[in-house]
Amino acid sequence: MSRSSESLRIRRTPEQDRSKATLQAIHSAAASLFGSRGTEAVSMTAIADAAGMTKAALYRYFDNKQALIYAMASDMFKQNRQRLIDTLSENPTSARGKLKEALQEYCELHREEPFRIRLFCALHTDPEISQLEISESKKNAEIWADYILKTQPHLEKKKLRRHLFLMMELVDGLTRVVLASSKSESKLLVSDFVDSFLEGVVD
């Protein structure tokens, strides 16, 4: 593993409740600051102050801000994937309908928690960290493909996964447009987005 990869690892994995609470305080403080100022404008000193700790204590958990962003993004992706799995287990409906429902909820979540879109912007500026997001898109595409193939087993699996992977990769762009639109317009945008990708691929 390269030195830069090592620097993205959390330095101290919390095991005791107190350490877990400290890590959560760091994440919460960073999320609030990132959401209001963006990742570039926020320093480790500001995060430490907001978390109620010294900068030295913060560095015992993370080597640098990129490592903190990586950890927060990893947690966010895990939460998103679990939310997706939960959504797919509820009220079975058409693939198109379920995709539109899930993407609408996803976009609105970013409206409620602005730090999420800031994290995505930060991920895309760092080639090494961006691999995390690409890997996550592939996992989500596989989950969606498996869901769709349950009711449409005749579809070509590899082609379906490719289309869904591209869709997952472009969801960030959709999210930014949705956040700049009214809620009523956002539903139309999400619907058009899904239909354009699934045309000729999913029945």
Automatic annotation (TrEMBL):
What residue spans carry the region label Disordered?
1-21
Cited InterPro entries:
Homeodomain-like_sf, HTH-type_TetR-like_transc_reg, HTH_TetR, TetR_C_22
Could you list this entry's UniProt keywords, alphabetically sorted: DNA-binding, Transcription, Transcription regulation
Keyword Transcription regulation tagged: yes
Tell me a Gene Ontology molecular-function term this record carries: transcription cis-regulatory region binding
Q: Give the matching SUPFAM superfamilies.
A: Homeodomain-like
Report the DNA-binding ranges.
43-62
Q: Which residues form the HTH tetR-type domain?
A: 20-80
Start-end of Basic and acidic residues biased regions: 1-20
Task: Look up keyword Transcription regulation and say if it applies.
Answer: yes
Q: What is this protein called?
A: AcrR family transcriptional regulator
**Species per Swiss-Prot/TrEMBL record:** Pseudoteredinibacter isoporae
